[in-house]
């Protein structure tokens, strides 16, 4: 621990790769680092190489890593990095370590669409669960992105939620600003436009979305906004599915776009639909709500904390019928769409912004480091 009372609080921030990645977790990390630096804290971003799970354990032996962590007053670790630091942390007896938990890797590994039932898959589940539990039991506190994540952590470590030394600090949806409330003319526009925002991977549910929309006997258009290079096989499967269902002309894959183009897509849409198999929180739903878009969201994870039947719908994993049941009534009843649009915007306005969220974390870290004078 850096120790002493002179100079700004020194925070170590451990992540895989670079903070400019486009996922919601990296957006959260980047916002937090920028906030802490903006308030005068000395933040050392410690970028570790992302490796296959078992190989990542070798990162614990990186020369100089423990010394670099010890030089900090408090260390925040993106918990996704846990195999790379779980052994290092045992040597940081005088430096408090906080796990920033976006989601549990063990929970994702246990899901049937990821693990399968082979002996190898079962061994992987056991390994990830055991190592993640050991990591989380060895830290000094937690930052959770949702109450759902907090509950999952408590269950894994075997401690009641109320006894955790932690803070729940949900992501915000104000990164893109806000759009005008949709006009009556826009709400009644044809064709009905659905926007999907996210990396095009199996977990995000784009194939479920296409299957659900294909059930609807009314004009619609789907705009898929997100990286198509992460899983080219998934993209190819989605395109093939759209052709097979006879809706290929209604589905557009735009790839990654800049923020201004994303704002345009959100302004032009009627609903945002990302029926993921699981979302630890779902920043994208709030970003859509900032533009008055009802959210067709994952039923599993943190979205249930702010998405409901007044501002969207919660979709069980891989349930095309539920997608159709959620969207078709909005196509046919634009007054209902208008009510849900207004409710979505109100949900966004009630939600904490990034400044609120990061300030909550900053004050939590002050208490952990036992130096509240640094945060006045």
Provide tags for this entry.
glycosyltransferase activity; 2 domains; alpha/beta; transferase; 376 residues; Rossmann fold; 16 helices; 6-stranded parallel β-sheet; glycosyltransferase; 16% strand; Glyco_trans_1
Q: Provide the residue-averaged pLDDT.
A: 91
Spatial arrangement of strands, main beta sheet: 2-1-3-4-5-6
In whole angstroms, the N-to-C terminal distance is: 21 Å
**Uncertain residue segments:** 372-376
* Count of spatially separate domains: 2
**Percent range for helical residues?**
40-55%
Shape: globular
CATH topology of the largest domain: Rossmann fold
* Radius of gyration based on Cα positions: 22 Å
Task: Tell me the strand percentage band.
Answer: 15-25%
CATH H-tier superfamily of the largest domain: Glycogen Phosphorylase B
CATH architecture of the largest domain: 3-Layer(aba) Sandwich
**SSE string:** EHEHHEHEHHHEHEHEHEHEHEHEEHHH
Structural classification: alpha/beta
Q: Please give the count of helices.
A: 16
State the total count of DSSP E strands: 12
Keywords: Glycosyltransferase, Transferase
Domain Glycosyl transferase family: 187-346
Protein name: Glycosyltransferase involved in cell wall bisynthesis
Organism: Halorubrum vacuolatum
């Amino acid at each position: 621990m850096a120790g002493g009372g002179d100079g700004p609080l020194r925070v170590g921030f451990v992540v895989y790769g670079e903070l400019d990645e486009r996922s919601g977790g990296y957006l959260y990390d980047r916002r937090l680092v920028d906030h802490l630096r903006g308030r005068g804290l000395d933040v050392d971003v410690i970028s570790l190489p992302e490796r296959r799970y078992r190989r990542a354990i070798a990162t614990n032996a990186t020369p100089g890593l423990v010394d670099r962590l010890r030089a900090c007053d408090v260390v925040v670790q993106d918990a996704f990095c846990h195999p790379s630091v779980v052994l290092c942390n045992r040597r940081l007896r005088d430096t408090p370590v906080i796990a920033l938990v976006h989601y549990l890797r063990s929970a994702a590994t246990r899901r049937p669409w990821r693990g399968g039932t082979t002996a190898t898959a079962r061994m992987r589940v056991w390994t990830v669960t055991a190592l993640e539990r050991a990591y989380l039991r060895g830290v000094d506190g937690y930052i959770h992105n949702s109450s759902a994540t907090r509950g999952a952590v408590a269950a894994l470590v075997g401690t009641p939620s109320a006894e955790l030394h932690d803070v729940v600090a949900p992501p915000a949806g104000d990164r893109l600003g806000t759009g005008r409330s949709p006009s009556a003319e826009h709400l009644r526009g044809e064709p009905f436009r659905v926007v999907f925002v996210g990396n095009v991977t199996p977990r995000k549910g784009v194939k479920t979305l296409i299957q659900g929309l294909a059930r609807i006997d009314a004009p619609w258009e789907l705009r898929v906004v997100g990286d198509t290079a992460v899983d080219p096989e998934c993209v190819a499967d989605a395109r093939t599915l759209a052709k097979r269902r006879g809706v290929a002309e209604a589905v557009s894959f735009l790839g990654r776009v800049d923020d201004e183009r994303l704002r345009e897509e959100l302004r032009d849409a009627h609903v945002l639909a990302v029926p993921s198999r699981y979302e630890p929180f779902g920043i994208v739903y709030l970003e859509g709500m900032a533009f008055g878009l009802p959210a067709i969201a994952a039923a599993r994870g943190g979205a249930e904390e702010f998405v409901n039947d007044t501002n969207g719908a919660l979709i069980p994993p891989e349930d095309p019928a539920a997608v159709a049941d959620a969207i078709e009534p909005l196509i046919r009843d634009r007054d209902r769409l208008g009510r849900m649009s207004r409710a979505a915007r109100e949900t966004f306005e009630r939600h904490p912004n990034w400044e609120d969220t990061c300030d909550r974390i900053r004050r939590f870290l002050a208490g952990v480091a036992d130096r509240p004078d640094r945060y006045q």
